Amino acid sequence: MSFEISIAEKQALGKVAVLMGGTSAERPVSLNSGAAVLAALIESGIDAIGIDIRENAAQQLSNAEFDRAFIALHGRGGEDGTMQGLLELLNKPYTGSGVMASALGMDKWRTKLVWDACQVATPKAFVLEEDSDWDAIMQALGGLAMVKPAREGSSIGMRKVHSSEALADSYAFAVQHDDLVIAEQYIEGKEFTVTILAEQALPAIQLVTTHDFYDFDAKYKASDTQYLLPSGLPDYAEAELQKMSLKAFKLVGCTGWGRVDAMQDKEGNFWLLEVNTSPGMTDHSLVPMAASAGGLNFSALVVKILQQTL
Fold first, then answer.
1. Number of domains the chain contains
2. Active site includes 153?
């Protein structure tokens, strides 16, 4: 089903470049997102082209003819403020958050520092280094931790650890993906994600996996991952999570659209994990799922994200 927009709006949008691919570890996911977005724009009657971003992005975009960009890039080089900065210099409007919010949102550690400072609940975490006191960190995190490259997405390089030996091993694994690695207190409980679209929080989705946690395989390969929508939360709790997510999104400086991931512990408290400023956009992704529950089909969602650049 396509989404009808007026001829005047189509003219105002002009030629749209869907930026996809990129050079990060999330390139294959981005190519899928970009293809889905491009198809939706064309189906809606918008003049759109796809650009597969490579190492020479500045040259590619300087030579391309377009009026605005739909960023369907994930990870470093596309979601971290660099592409946003390039588009600012080229004076081209683009979807999603600006330079500062994109850079901050890509950095899980510094995002947590901002949330902490503003009393938004986020699990306790430590930056890991080669000479870290593994025993002391595990003890401080309650004996169970999640090790994460601070500036990767799609759960790449992440491991759940139960011992100081595993913590040291997982640091060595994660540091291959990013030289900034954190160990975060593991929250035992339910996992949720909240989509933010045009200053509004959409219905929350609960993620249920048979894996140890919602890892890369659970996201992209497993057939038994469940997405509960409605989320299973009582109305008051869902409203609390939505309000908390929207506040956290704005604290990072994010605009347009994105996603906030959270855990709920066994006492019912919510803990925010991270913000995604350029989430996946395939027909199986979480943002389209939430939008559909809010009454927007995929094409309508893509157009609504793009309209915010006008």
1. 3
2. no
Give the model confidence (pLDDT) of 189-227 as tens digits.
Answer: 999 999 999 999 999 999 998 777 666 665 666 677 899
- Does 307 map to a domain? no
Q: Indicate which CATH number applies to the domain containing 44.
A: 3.40.50.20
Copy the structure tokens of residue 202: 């959409």
For this structure, is 280 an active site residue? yes
Residue 299 falls inside a structural domain: no
54 falls within a domain: yes
> For residues 220 and 245, what is the distance between their CA atoms, to the nearest angstrom?
24
Percentage above 70 pLDDT, the chain:
95
Question: Could you report the per-residue pLDDT of 95-145, keeping only the tens digit for each?
Answer: 999 999 999 999 999 999 999 999 999 999 999 999 999 999 999 999 999
Q: Examine the fold and report which residue of 133, 160, 185 is the final residue of a domain before the chain moves on.
A: 185
Catalytically annotated residue among 157, 280, 285, 299: 280
220 noted as active-site residue: yes
Contact yes or no for 98/255 (Cβ under 8 A): yes
Going by the DSSP 8-state scheme, the letter that residue 162 receives in this structure is: S
pLDDT at 222: 65
Residue 138 lies in domain: 125-185
Indicate if 152 belongs to the active site.
no
Over pLDDT 90: what percentage of the chain? 89
Tell me which of 22, 24, 26, 155 is the catalytic residue: 26
Q: Considering 151, 256, 261, 285, which one is annotated as catalytic?
A: 261
- Please give the pLDDT value at position 276: 96
Dihedral sign of CA atoms 185, 262, 174, 105 in order = negative
Q: Is 276 considered catalytic here? A: yes
Note whether 241 and 112 are same-domain residues. yes
The catalytically annotated residue of 80, 152, 215, 274 is 274
Active site residue 186: no
Please say if 214 is a catalytic residue. no
Nearest to 141 by CA among 207, 192, 182, 185: 185
65 has catalytic annotation: no
